[in-house]
Amino acid sequence: MSAGSSKEPMNEQVIANMYSSMHSEVNQIHSKITELEIEVSEHSLVLAAIKPLDQSRRCYRMIGGVLVERTIKEVLPAVDLNKQGLEEVINRLNEALERKKKEISEFELKYKIKMKRGGEALSKEEEAAEQKGTSQGVLVGPAGEQQT
């Protein structure tokens, strides 16, 4: 029997590993979105800088690691097209991110995973202690009050 079989009950370690890898995927997607948003911002800055200039003016564009001399008239549509392509990729990644978040929440419901404030999953023992109210806490007064 394999660990991925739906009929076989999975142990807590396998579930925790799957849950961790799902969160890792979400983090990777999020970082890729951030990286691409920075590129879109850079493309926007370039477009804003060269649009008001004379269309026949020389400019240089990096293509595959080679600096190529072109005119603004030639470069402007290409940079705009690249920016639009990046925005489409960002939209697809955002959709994938939402699907993955939904998958994680379904996984949490299926395996009754609860999260601590620090972002760690609660073990069954910790969850039971939390429900019974046996965990010890510290009571702190309102901020700004000085005790003498």
TrEMBL record:
Coiled coil, from the record: 83-117
> Which segments carry the region annotation Disordered?
122-148
Cross-referenced InterPro entries: PFD2, PFD_beta-like, Prefoldin
What Pfam family is a match, any one? Answer: Prefoldin_2
Q: Which one of the record's GO molecular function terms can you name?
A: protein folding chaperone
Keyword vocabulary terms for this entry: Chaperone, Coiled coil
- Biological processes, Gene Ontology terms: protein folding; response to cold
Q: Looking at the record's lineage, which domain of life comes first?
A: Eukaryota
Please tell me one Gene Ontology term that the record gives under cellular component.
prefoldin complex
Family, per entry: Belongs to the prefoldin subunit beta family.
Q: What is this protein called?
A: Prefoldin subunit 2
Which organism does this record belong to? Zostera marina
